[in-house]
Amino acid sequence: MLALVCVCLVLAAVWFAYHAIQPFLSAFNSGNPVSSIANQFNPPAGSVGWKLEHGQRVNILVMGYGGPGANDAPYLTDSDMVLSINPATNQAMMASIPRDLKVQICAYTNGSCDVNKFNVAYSTGMLNSAYTGKKPQFSGADKDRGGNLAMQTASEVTGLHFDGYAAFDFDAFKYLVDDLGGVDVCLTSPLDDYQYPNNDDGYIAGGIHFKAGCQHVNGTQALELARSRHAIQASQATDFARIARQQLLIEAIMKKAESADAITRAPQLMQTLQTQFSTDLSLTDLRILYDWYKKVGPTGIGKVAVTLTNFLYDTDSDPSCADGAAYAYYECPLDPSWGILHQYFSSYFVPPRTLAEKAPIQVANASYGLSDMGPQVVAALQPLGLDVTGQVRVDTSSTSTVYDYSPKKDGKTAQWLATYFGAKVVNATSATPVPSPDPPTGGILLVLGRNFSLRWVGETT
User: Fold this and answer.
1) Distance CA 396, CA 340 (A)
2) Which pTM was predicted?
3) What's the pLDDT band for 370 if we cut at 50, 70, 90?
4) Where would a tag sit more exposed on the chain, N or C end, judged by fewer CB atoms within 10 A?
């Protein structure tokens, strides 16, 4: 629910952690530019900073939790996000993992695992008294124990190797804004939300209210703007509007943090980070990560989500999803082996030259029985930047085929689709017989046959 707030806070924290030490670096640098001494901290091989400098993909797990006082489970993560960066192509992606996803959390020395929701992984690592018998990397006083267990669990889901984590209490967002003395934002319309949550499973009495135009907001108000989901104004109630507000906030935070006044607040900023923000990234990693972020900005980061519209089903649609689990509601993968999700996470950086073709793609579901697979595949492909125009149901086929009607035969889009879906490419013409009644003009028809549908649900025969 708060995935973008997570990433906004991490990027803000990256900025603060790096810039708050600049006065101290300057003191040791005899007035020379801070960057010259900062650049002397060369990242060790294999670190996040080293990978970014050498064009290698980086994956960071970002988590937000309620914190003490929010509820009786302070370390349950409300937001879980994979931040992936491909510096070779200057691409980045934020991918959300649903908190209710049914997973195995394998933390114990005896080899046993808990079947639970994904959002319990970080909490299992952090709460020693409630979870005994854990392996050393998930227990004791190590501040990274929760992050280590969450990364291990996320690796099972995504198939990715994680290079680091960042976790924070959501109060950190408002405290950081308050430490900066508030920030200025400009809203295009008013925002009135009467369903903004409090900390007692209810709503704030009277709701939250913001006027249109430019205004100064404190930390509590900034968090309200970032989290609001149910404004009575249609223009403020969409996911797009919430993303836009979050981008406004992060830009406002960055601008305020660059001011001379903010430098005097460095001790408060660092204190907030130390008490409300945990990460295993080094200062050098943060510096290089910030340098990368300056190149792409918040609008340069793509956004995907693992949801019920693409890769999952839930206990409401099939009670067997909760079989053997401790709670009533879960979300489960259509492919219980996780193989189709592993492929998705490894492949969601579509090459820029492929995207540049802007070839219209129609998905044709030719599976034997999976009537929902067509719209699910469309929902998975569209956030990757591909021009997927829709889907149709066609007669069944044992194999998958890419019919290429584009002006440039053997185009990059057709080849990418063929590789991803295990399909053959047919360079089609208007005379080529195809199963779809209305293939996209000048584009591509992707026919998904039984060979792919088996993979979609994790079956081999």
Assistant:
1) 21
2) 0.83
3) very high
4) C
Distance between first and last Cα of the chain:
37
* SS3 of residue 197 by DSSP: strand
8 Å CB contact between 426 and 401: yes
pLDDT at 282: 82
DSSP string over 421-457: HT-EEEE--TTS--S-SSPPTTSEEEEE-HHHHHHHT
Q: Cα angle at 151 between 148 and 157, to 5 degrees?
A: 150
Q: Flag whether pLDDT at 333 surpasses 90.
A: yes
Secondary structure, 3-state, 361-403: EEEEECCCCCCCHHHHHHHHHHHHCCCEEEEEECCCCCCCEEE
> What amino acid occupies position 149?
L
3-state secondary structure of 313: strand
Pairing of β 91-96 and β 58-65:
unpaired
Residue 296: both structure tokens together: 């792409």
Q: How far is CA 187 from the centre of its chain?
A: 25
* pLDDT confidence of residue 1: 39
Does 299 score more than 80 pLDDT? Answer: no
Tokens of 385: 């930047």
Q: What is the pLDDT of residue 253?
A: 78
DSSP state letter for 200 = S
Tell me the two tokens of residue 163.
């290079």
Report residue 446 as tokens: 């992707």
Digit-coded pLDDT (tens) for 403-428? 998 877 668 999 999 999 999 999 88
| Other residues' Cβ atoms within 10 Å of the Cβ of residue 39 | 12
Per the CB < 8 A criterion, the answer to whether 81 and 94 are in contact is yes
Q: Please determine, for residue 125, whether its predicted confidence score (pLDDT) is greater than 70.
A: yes
Q: What distance in Å separates the CA atoms of residue 279 and residue 393, rounded to the nearest whole number?
A: 47
Contact, 35 vs 21, CB < 8 A? no
218 pLDDT band (50/70/90 cuts)?
Answer: very high
How many angstroms separate the most distant Cα atoms in the chain? 76
Instruction: Taking the CA atoms of 94, 47, 91 and 352 in sequence, report the sign of the dihedral they define.
Output: negative
> Closest by alpha carbon to 302, among 335, 345, 336, 331?
345
- Enter the tokens of residue 55: 């064009």
Measured in degrees and rounded to the nearest 5, phi and psi for residue 302 equal -75, 165
Structure tokens at 370: 């999976």
At residue 69 the predicted structure's pLDDT band, cuts being 50, 70 and 90, is low
**Amino acid, single-letter form, for residue 316:** D
Burial of 22 (0-12, 13-18, 19+ CB in 10 A): middle
